[in-house]
């Protein structure tokens, strides 16, 4: 069996007396597109923060391509090939769109903390930046200050920064939250294109997006994974239906693959 | 989208734009520096110009922290001071040396030594300081400054006590035929290093570290998720900022030939903070403008009025409250305004605002000057252009109140109108 | 023994004065996120107001009125100044108070002159309370002690037992939640800022005649108060108390130690005539708070009791 891209073993997290994540086990294979769904407050974002190193685990272990990453700092984890986006746009608002992406590119091309080179003269940096801007469709807005972008474009920029470093494991936290239908469709197409051949872990509320995108789905309820499987298995799972009462159950039912 | 457009928009500005934005200003700056001596400035003006050059480098170094990295320091004069002291010591070593390394060292190279000393001091002091950002960083910088200033008074052999230590810039070998004795030679020395410093600091903003420093200012959390350690970024930028401050210290050592413990205290640190902020910390050229204005004010205004610090405080608060982008923001705003389609409308608005501000300034000057003369109690009377304004005169009170009220009313009207538009 | 007792007493008084200043600063910082750079300027204003009021009426009225006046000015500053810059972020707010400190310094010089004013301990408190080890102990110091303790108890009561205190406490631990409590946030901010400034003013009233009332008193006191707040841990009242007492005792006892480095480290061969050897402990006293600041920040960057990153 090959090493999974991401492996969570018995992951726990409590904030004081509040146990948010209670023993999550999860394996995500290389190249898999994995979605995490669950009701509000289930701990999806907390799980993201634990994997990406923003929070420290109370218990358990996280492995990235077989190497233990729990306990490492976010930037160390990022350098090992895991990159994440944020639920709330988390961009460099006073810099231009191009500079936002360029900052995301720099480390992966080995420029580190260099203070002897002019970024304008680094051909590969410029080309990779232009390539990514083109891929996400922000090329014509490259010189705008990021703070002036419309909301949907800010979300796109968020994804662009996330993929800029070329990480093999991409984690997206509700990439389509707050978008209109047409914007969502475009975002999904972008995510498919940008993460081709990569491992994707996504948290998403829009069931259409989830069932359209994911190879496998995990359902997180009160800090525990109650089911993991292919989209059709999840749709038929009675435990999942129980956790999702009412409207959202219909949503799962109705979501077309 | 064709390949051509992709190239031109995504690979950044065209080479013509690059030249206009990134090369031309520096060529012009260099030209101005080179032309000034041919106007035959007086000795006083020359000294003022030298101090302006030093403060330009210092203010830009300071803005590497405040404007570019988002770190507010209340003690940046420590690095200028330590490096300046070091350079005065070097002056004395050169003077005392009989050949050997120090004996052959041209005084012209002192800013390099200042740069190195500043970097060293920044590396040592920055280590504990840069572990925290925001308010805590500001407070630590304040504490460090107090500590260094107090220590300077304690170690006489290094810092020379209250009298400080002095040196002789004419010692050592000549460089490019300059003894650095006459003031105009010092001018060339300062102009050269100012130019080098300004260009170097601009180039720094274009490096990966320079860009990452801006990213860390905007969003330190996100920086961690693109592979960078924000603490490390801050620490490295801090070292560079201290180094350029040290370079200014080396320049000051040659110009003034003396350093006192005062130079490390909170007063010069606060002054450079005000200079950079009033100039405009979001623009590269802002601190340059601020340094020019502040140096001019502190050397000239203090001759006219004892209340110049009060004016300074008022100006600073006004900028913080109403003009957060500083002088540079005003200049570039004006430049963009006169090229925009509705310029006539904007001009009218600005003219009204200018009149409003001028009216308020009249009243404030009257109030401050009359108040100072009254409180110092020497029976002096404020007499601008032959007018006599005693503290209990009717005209005085009219001048103190009416223009102020008119100015405020005018400014409010303009603000209300532009809100309506 | 004699020096120890005197140092303890004086150090406690100094520490309590420091706490009176830093408690206001901590309250303001915890709730509003603003480190009021001009805080010590309100301390100075308190002293000058008291001097002027005492000249017209008497000390007891000054003790009451001067802090109120300082508080009212503080409220005005919050309402017409700070609130406007709030939108531009904390750095802008800090810079605003920095400029304000400049202004207050200069205005004080205009109104009261550049040299110190003769602000005296009132006659009714100007006597020797007791004599220990042959030295007289002035009653006024004990009076300071009582005022400070009274303030401490009132503050504790206000925070722990009243409704206002509950709101403030909630805001201390969850600064983002104040708005959700349904209280008029701008009013709460204005009140807290005013109260903090009034506390500083009170410290000025009783400290101004204990030390000296001159235009430099704000610049001298300001940095030390910041040290107290940072060493204690930004936003922690308990921390500020511990740090204030620590610095008060440390500085006061250091002043009374005449030993030089040579006396202490003589066994290492440090000579009394060398530069380092001739430094006395008492001459180090002004540096101690800052030394402590740097040490604490290396060992525990959040301060003694702080757990909040800024």
Task: Write a brief caption for the model.
Chain B has helices at 3-10, 15-35, 43-66, 77-96, 100-103, 110-129, 134-154, 156-159, 183-205, 208-218, 220-224, 230-256, 266-279, 286-304, 308-322, 326-339, 343-376, 394-420, and strands at residues 165-166, 258-259. With 421 residues, chain B is mostly helical. In chain B, strands 1-2 form a two-stranded antiparallel ribbon.
Question: Could you explain the architecture of this structure?
Answer:
- Chain A has 257 residues and is of the alpha/beta class.
- In chain A, 37% of the residues lie in helices and 23% in strands.
- Chain A has ten helices and ten strands.
- In chain A, strand 1 and strand 2 form a beta hairpin.
- Chain B is mainly alpha-helical and 421 residues long.
- Chain B folds into two domains: 16-323, ABC transporter involved in vitamin B12 uptake, BtuC (Orthogonal Bundle); 340-420.
- Chain B has helices at 3-10, 15-35, 43-66, 77-96, 100-103, 110-129, 134-154, 156-159, 183-205, 208-218, 220-224, 230-256, 266-279, 286-304, 308-322, 326-339, 343-376, 394-420; strands spanning 165-166, 258-259.
- A two-stranded antiparallel ribbon of chain B has the order 1-2.
- The longest helix of chain B is centred in the C-terminal third of the chain and has 34 residues, at 343-376.
- Chain B starts with a helix and ends with a helix.
- The model of chain B is unreliable at 1-10 (pLDDT under 50).
- Chain C has helices spanning 2-32, 39-56, 59-85, 90-112, 139-161, 163-173, 185-208, 217-232, 237-255, 261-265, 281-284, 288-299; strands spanning 128-132, 135-138.
- Chains in contact: A-B, B-C.
- The interface between B and C is large, with 47 and 49 residues.
Strand order across the largest sheet of chain C? 1-2
> How many strands of chain A?
10
The pLDDT mean of chain A sits at 87
Q: What's the helical proportion of residues of chain A?
A: 25-40%
Number of structural domains of chain C: 1
Radius of gyration of chain A: 18 Å
Spans of at least 5 consecutive residues with low confidence of chain A: none
Order of helices and strands of chain A: EEEHEEHEHHHEHEHEEHHH
User: What percentage of the residues of chain C does DSSP assign to strands (E)?
Assistant: under 5%
The interface involving the most residues is between: B-C, 47 and 49 residues
Ends of chain C: how far apart? 43 Å
Could you report the average pLDDT of chain C, rounded to the nearest whole number? 83
Content-based structural category of chain C? mainly alpha
Which term fits the overall shape of chain A? globular
Quantity of strands of chain C, as a count: 2
Rg calc of chain C: 20 Å
